[in-house]
Amino acid sequence: MLTGQITSAIIGVALAGAILFLVRRDHLHGPYALWWFAVAAATFALGVFPALIAWLARVTGIGYAPVLPIVVGLSLVLIRMLKLDIDRSKQERQIRRLTQKLAILEQELDRLGGRRSPEPADDDGH
Amino acid sequence: MPPLSSAPPVPAIAPTPTEAGACLAIMPARDEAATVGAVVEGVRRTLGCAVLVVDDASGDATADAARAAGATVLTLPLGLGAWGATQAGIRYARRHGFQHAITLDADGQHLPESLPLLLNAKDATGANVVIGTCTGRLSRAKRIAWQYLRFLTGLKLNDFTSGLRLYDVHAIEVLAGQEASLLDYQDVGVLMLLSRSGLRIAETPVEMVPRRTGHSRVFASWPVVARYMMHTTVLCLAQIDAGRRRAAGAARAC
């Protein structure tokens, strides 16, 4: 039979450990690593010292303490998702422009080098 | 093939020299091998200008058919959709110093004979952009949609989605930019960007042929129309009143 504190400590430590492992193995790129490092630190602290939550709720004036990590966590997830879509849009723009530039440069290459059209395409036969 | 190091130095950029006022016809094409050749020949016969077919990752012989008919071909390695392909052509026009770009569909919907009308309208109105507007009777869905878009954008236009357009060198400069790269159709977003950049848009009525193959991307069915209108509404909300602000600004300037 586990006490609530041990359960939360196990979850917190496991999550923080998994994130740290991934950050250290270079699976996450710069700014993402920093974000997840902060998340790992927070889960570790709140998991091992749940009293922190009660203290934070008192400070912020929230009547029902357990709701605090849920609200904060959800907000952070939403912010993270928003940032994700912003990044994706930026990458989509870059991919489109790269694709266009590639086609233009390929045409110029053909024109400068003389088209080898009678031969089968030898560069990318997809 | 000689090793790269011994190849003669290539000039920084080697655009084809184009005389002042030169015009480029841009045709985005996806799987249009059946019609693209005839359209290219028609345009070359009518205008005598260079024709660029942007092959939007077709699965058929669109590129070969276009080349055989005398067009220059850009082949996109990834499908970018109608606007992405058109923008590739516009960036090509900018890079090679063309003064005008005319866009038309490769499916034979737009008649090459109507292209001089666009140039005439440009000379008559002095506008930066001329839209060839279909003169045929509009369906009820389209009439409602256009009314709504006129209200939303403040642009006083009769046809928002026509792909038959003439852009001058200023419009080419605007549309080749980063800001135009996340648009999906050559329609409201493009027009609002042009209007916001202070360019003038005119329309001229032209005859169009009902599509022989394929069908309208926008007006395919009610759910598609609904999605398109929602998408466009969100796009417009970000910059509501672009047209009206522009009109007010022009009025003040007078």
Task: Please tell me about this protein's structure.
The complex is a heterodimer of chains A (126) and B (254). Chain A is mainly α. Chain A folds into 2 domains: 1-49; 64-113. Helices cover 77% and strands 0% of the residues of chain A. Chain A is built from 4 helices and no strands. Chain B is 42% helix and 15% strand. In chain B, α2 (62-68) links the parallel β2 and β3 (72-75). Chain B has 9 helices and 7 strands; from the N terminus they run βαβαβαβαβαβααβαα. Mean pLDDT of chain B is 81; it is low at 1-20 and 247-254. At the A-B interface, α4 of A face β3 and α3 of B.
Task: Name the features.
heterodimer, A: 126 residues, mainly alpha, 77% helix, elongated, B: 254 residues, Spore Coat Polysaccharide Biosynthesis Protein SpsA, Chain A, 7-stranded mixed β-sheet, 9 helices, disordered N terminus
Summarize the structure.
The complex is a heterodimer of chains A (126) and B (254). Chain A has 126 residues and is mainly alpha-helical.
List the helices and strands and how they pair.
The complex is a heterodimer of chains A (126) and B (254).
Chain A lengths: L3 H21 L5 H19 L2 H10 L6 H47 L13
Chain B lengths: L22 E7 L3 H15 L2 E6 L6 H7 L3 E4 L5 H15 L4 E4 L11 H11 L3 E6 L5 H14 L11 E4 H7 L12 H9 L4 E6 L15 H16 L4 H12 L1
Parallel strand pairs in B: 1-2, 1-4, 2-3, 5-7
Antiparallel strand pairs in B: 4-6, 5-6
Helix pairs in contact in B: 1-2, 3-6, 5-8
Placed side by side, the strands forming the largest sheet of chain B appear as 3-2-1-4-6-5-7
Overall tally of structural domains of chain B? 1
Give the SSE string of chain B.
Answer: EHEHEHEHEHEHHEHH
First-to-last CA distance of chain B: 63 Å
